[in-house]
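LAB NOTEBOOK - FOLDING QUEUE
OPERATOR: T.R.
BATCH SIZE: 2
PURPOSE: Compare the predicted structure-token outputs for two unrelated chains run back to back under identical settings.
PRIORITY: normal
REVIEWER: second-year student, initials M.K.

ITEM 1
FIELD SEQUENCE / FIELD STRUCTURE:
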Amino acid sequence: MISEFVTLIVGFITSILSMPLVMKFMKKKGIVGIDMHKKNKPAIPEMGGVAVIIGIAASVVVASVLTSEKTRLLLSFLASTLIAGIVGAADDLKPLSARIKPFLTLFSGMPILMLCTYDPRGPIFPIIGRTRLTIVYPLLIIVALAVTSNAVNMLDPFNGTMSGSCTVITITLLISSLILGRNDGVLLSLCMLGPLLVLYLFNRYPAKVFSGDVGSLSIGAALGAISILSHLEMVAVIAFAPQIMNAFYGLSTIGRLYERRETARPVVLLNDGRLMATSDPKAPLTLARVILAHGPLYEYEVARIIIILSIISGILAIFTAYLIKVTV
């Protein structure tokens, strides 16, 4: 466990040292986003996810040195994260269409297939046991990472929601890996946890930095990769419930793939600083809009509810891991 602990510390320190530099660089270059849920509409440095990727890369390098037998596994994890991050960075600098971006994220699953770091027999279900999806499973891996990366990207409406909920998912995968004795899952989750904690510290309300698509897409792909490489697919499905619900709500109401900039905003800012669900029928139905349907709330209150939902999903996911342990 010493090597795993070292990777956690290295990732955290690398990210917390690089984040201020990334923020300063983005602000200098004018790469900023307007915080639309604040009355004074502050300009916040974008692409803070770059510091997360730097932290993950540092963790993976150290982990590869300390556990050389895991090098191929770690390389496939890092490559998947980087590919999604490159797609996100391209979208941050020059917005991609709502169809091109999900298509490009399909390639983030390729390193796992090319390096053969997955179990070809398929996922493990509670009670049922391991499935036999040898032919179909590689295709599911490609789709899975595209789904997780874009679902995480879609649930990033408020300060701290994406970084906080993904930190919860990472901890869920870590605990589930410990329960099931999946050492690979423990190592990969700790490579991810340090940089994510740093992002949350800077991105929580009131946000000092936005992750950008470079952050949300890479983090979503990394979480999907951990789920595949550690055989925690069913655990991840439960842990991702808020992201899946949010994506389903939006896609079902709009009826197609869409970008936030293409539609009416699902929430509106009131004069007292609270947020209210819009009555505009052209706006997508989102998890935030459903939460606000019960009445106006402050941004940090909505963010807290979303993170609480993630914690509930995480608890159910950990229970799923326990069921797999005792029934398979």
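ITEM 2
FIELD SEQUENCE / FIELD STRUCTURE:
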Amino acid sequence: MSTQNLKIAIVIVCLLALLVLVPMGNSFVVLLATRAMAFAILAMSLDILLGFTGLASLGQAAYFGVGAYLTAYLANYYGFGLKWDFWLMIPIGMAVGGALAALFGLFAIRATGTYFLMITLALGQCVWGLAYRWNSVTGGDNGITLKGGRPQFGIDLTNDINFFYLTFAFFAATLFALYVLIRSPFGKSLLGIRERELRMRILGYNVWLHKYIAFIIAGAFGGLSGVIWAHANGIVTPETVVLTTSVDALLMTVLGGAGTLVGGAIGSAIVFGLREYVSTLVPWWQYVLGGVYVLTILYLPSGLMGIPERVRQWRNSQKKRETTKMTTAPSSH
């Protein structure tokens, strides 16, 4: 079995274990896993930019927040005798997230490196400012609470386990869709742009357009994450679109391993787990989490998903040393 097939098999086994084991826990564990998976979709959407296109963004919370706010607003809206249900919000949230990314991308994609990072940060803060100040729509500091709880359409989503299964389905579908994307010729082009942008230009690729499309795709899945998060959390506030949300998504992706997709999900699970567990032990849990980030960046720059490769390199170096010792050792007669 090839290394790639082995990784896919391990991911499938882990997903099945998650699907079976989490519902066996208490309601807190189920809700924590649901929120972690909703946020993992955001981290994976960011990985399309960071890990596969080489664009580090600090504005992903904007699309996350737009999807969440739109869901909460329309869920409480009964004008013209219509009630906006869950299934309608999925395509709407993705479309609005993608549309906002299409607008922001016109400004951001023209920059590179630190300038790209700062522009996405500024654009994201504009959305946060609207969420904080536009009281008539967003509710300001109080936010928007979803009235009536989660929707019901033959499946009782007010039941946390049922909603966990539904969130898992969207998480798995997102992982599969993004995996197919990165394995496609378009995804290979993104990798080429990340590694040698000038060479891709010389070969005739429209680098700006490729980046722009990747930016829109990331925004669309960010909107999807926001829709699910709104139903999982039950309330949407300006904290949803604050800079910390974008930073968390970025650090989760780096912690798990940028350029792996699954790394974002692993980072999300670790951060949510540590945040909830360590915060019950010590009041300075932020320092513990910060220490984990620092140690990962210093000693595992490729993230936790890079550990097998580091182990393989270490074993190869050990074999080379042993071979060198055997060839240089004096022969006895």
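REVIEWER COMMENT (ITEM 2): The chain has a mean pLDDT of 85.
FOLLOW-UP: none requested
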